[in-house]
Design the sequence.
């Protein structure tokens, strides 16, 4: 079974509007972390935001916020006031909390295109 | 350096050739990861180091893949007798400590390998 599912291969948004990128996850661990990364065409994975499974409040970092719904196992990324420079691939990832599992598991990504 | 540095950025190898990919993590970062990213896919975990110890190599696809980090800083990923299916971007990442909590994982720009 997929541990991280991103169901939107591509998304379009108008400049200055908000957009939500979906991510659902699957784990039996109680302790885990959820990450979002942006990957522009240059290839570098740029860290955006982190949410721990025990964090009671949704994470926010500037224009990025994470809509964490634990019971639904979803961790959607919300980008407010989209900018042309936000056009990129976006990946959701999870790190499970069990000992020895330090690696991130990534979804297949969503390509976001911001239109002027 | 300020970020994770990888070299070469681009490598074209003939099938059967050996290649070596270098990763220079952020200074002081204990954890180092290698990921493989095929075109249009999310990154997939290859191996993990804590200092010089390779604690997890469960993602290495075959015994043609070998990674080392002999002094706990720079790491090399070696692929022997390359095959066309090895064509991918190889991403290196590092983090300050164990990736529990919000320890951010920083990625390099990747080494783009094409096997012809």
Sequence:
């Amino acid at each position: 079974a997929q541990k991280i599912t991103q169901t939107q291969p591509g998304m379009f948004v108008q400049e200055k509007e908000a957009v939500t990128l979906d991510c659902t996850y699957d784990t039996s661990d109680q302790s885990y972390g959820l990450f979002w990364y942006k990957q522009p065409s240059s290839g570098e994975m740029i860290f955006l935001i982190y949410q721990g499974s025990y964090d009671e409040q949704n994470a926010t970092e500037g224009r990025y916020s994470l809509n964490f719904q634990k019971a639904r196992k979803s961790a959607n990324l919300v980008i407010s006031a989209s900018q042309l420079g936000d056009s990129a691939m976006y990946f959701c990832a999870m790190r499970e909390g069990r000992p020895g599992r330090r690696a991130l598991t990534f979804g297949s990504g969503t390509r976001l295109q911001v239109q002027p | 350096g300020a970020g994770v540095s990888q070299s070469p950025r681009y490598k074209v190898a003939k099938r059967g050739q050996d290649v070596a990919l270098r990763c220079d993590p952020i200074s002081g970062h204990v954890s180092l990861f290698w990921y493989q990213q095929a075109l249009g896919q999310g990154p997939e975990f290859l191996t993990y180091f804590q200092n010089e110890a390779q604690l997890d190599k469960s993602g290495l696809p075959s015994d043609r893949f070998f990674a080392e980090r002999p002094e706990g800083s720079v790491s090399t990923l070696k692929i022997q007798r390359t095959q066309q299916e090895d064509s991918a971007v190889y991403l290196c990442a590092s983090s300050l400590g164990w990736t529990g909590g919000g320890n951010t994982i920083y990625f390099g720009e990747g080494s783009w390998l094409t096997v012809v």
